[in-house]
Protein 1
Amino acid sequence: MTSIVAYAVVHTEPPSIFLGEDIEVLHRVLALEVVARTAPTTLGHGAAEVRAALLEERWGDAVVGWIRATGTGVDVYDGKSVYTADDLPADLIGAQLQFTRLFDGGSTTPLRRVING
């Protein structure tokens, strides 16, 4: 069964990806795993603002303060699907492909030949 999750990409080098079951959990993950692990000297004058937001459990504000202080971008996505093998059975994928837009009309190569070689 498909699950809905939230995830974030923190644009460090290399980028870091964080996943939560919803946006509220994701904000807490970012607060703990990214923001709170940052050296205060990296945050400069923004450290006090970020600390206060964390202590008051204003997770989103803490992340925004961290972004401002570090200049590091964070992209957050909510409501994304996680698919399982049950959602896309391997034995049915060929049949499902023939009903997709790419194979709708105008196909010059029969799908059966593409799948079976």
Note: The mean pLDDT is 89.
Protein 2
Amino acid sequence: MSHANCLFLMALDADAFLGDEEEQREFIESEFSDRFGDRLDENNYFHHLAVFFKDGSYLIWPKSEPGGFADVANENRWQAVHRYALQCVSVDFKLFGAITWTFGDNENEGNKKIDGLTFDDLLSEIYTTVPASLSEKYSTLQGKPAWMGNLPDESWMTEYDRRKMVLMFEALRNSDNVPFTKWGIVTPYEYRAFDLTRCEEPNAILITDIHT
């Protein structure tokens, strides 16, 4: 059991920007529930942290902070949050041996390497490294798949990690706005960046802490 920051690409209409901050938060919460609520289970309790708008402004939830994004210039903030989404996905791929990523978390060498790459270079690294890693994992398999319940703990985790990596990679490939997936079969258990738009121009990225 753990917590992870998940990011949601949204297209909010004008109503999201009317009223006071509490009314804006309520509108965004309703949109989130309508478009993603059916992919959460009873274990996925969550807390919205902040929403960042394409114009560089942002809105935070009570007892939350905008992290290092508050220090980013308005004109660069949207791109910074977009890059953060890809960083979260990269960490879940365990790129460079990275560990769990929250707001600007660069406590180990893998995280530092991820933090030092541009969006395009990071995406290129994923597309180079992950297929090669999966190919290596599949090369050692023999026979038909085993039932997960019949595997010893060590083999179970190896099998789980490989299957999860496949789902993550396919989720990434099913992105109109990388890395936000349109693939409706994945949940926060497998992936961390989701596209909630419906053929609309995105104008907001919501960051939510979700228990998995």
Note: The two ends are 6 Å apart (CA to CA).
Protein 3
Amino acid sequence: MNEFSVNIQSMKNKLLMIIGVLAIAGTSVNAGWFGAGIKPVPYIKVPFVKLVVPVPSAIAGPRAGTEVDANVSTSGANVALPWIKGGVRWPSLTLGEGKSTVTIGPKHRSKAAAAKKKAAAAKKPKGKRKSTK
């Protein structure tokens, strides 16, 4: 009799575990909360935080140039030596979701997205000046 009650208890535990696993698997999470990607720049996204870390670039050979140069700007740093050239763009951290976001670091966009934004700004009509009469 005692052995039979132990089996019922273990079956209850297994049943509760199966129900718990199905409940967790059945809940839906907003797919936009989590993610990772490599285009236009590599990024990792968790709820309310997005970290963008661009891949450094390097060139070796005659196309890299023959001059010595180095510069640092708000978007990244570049170094050039004869036959060697390299650069890195700064990472950025975005906090928030939707329209209410704060970005620490440069905003990384693909060239196509930047061109599209520039074209939209060019099409936007300029406001008329008010007369001072």
Note: The chain has a mean pLDDT of 80.
Protein 4
Amino acid sequence: MSHAGQYGARMNSLLSLSRPRRSARSSDATAAIRPELAWIHDGVRYRVSVWPEVIFQRETVPGEWTSSDDPEEAVFASAALGVTPNQWRRYLEFVPPAEREFLQRFHFSRMAALHVITRSPALLAGLAQVPALTPFLTAHVGLRGGEGPRWSEITAIFERNGIFGVLQWLGLPASRQSLAILSNIADPDLPRRLLEPLRAALWEPEALWALSHAATLTDERLAEACHALAA
């Protein structure tokens, strides 16, 4: 071999030794970081796949998952405690701007809000204007009764009659005054215990007047109006 050939072979050997090798452990760790959301409810693991699939699943046996299209309200409540802010931050990076902006308005009920806009995507435009209506939709089975969720019916009503049709279907007054009150609620994370009393209050002229003249409606102000009605 010539001197030039020996020199070239030696340099290639040195360069290969100087290149940092990618650690197999580092590669495995990177693969393990997935933007899906995962939490535990009543000893059962749940997860939601990344956008745009957004498939809700629960673990039946270790390592085996089955679809859980309509989890119970309590499952969403557990997600509020089990899903960390960092998990949400990574997940929302994959969500389109309009949906991401909407979901960021929620904290405790963000998982439930994600479920609503993926089960009935057409509602997003209306709910973006009145986000406090979202908890009513999450709880629609309990509020209206029936054997199960009725997302197809809700979507059809919204497409036919708009947000006022949804208000009426939920048992709320289908009026601009009611819509203005719901739009004025400061935090759309309405507690489940307030939904039925608030729905009843919106049908009462005295409570309706008080709520419509409040500068901002906090949970405390809503609770006061509902308690005054009960008294």
Note: Confidence is low (pLDDT under 50) at residues 6-32.
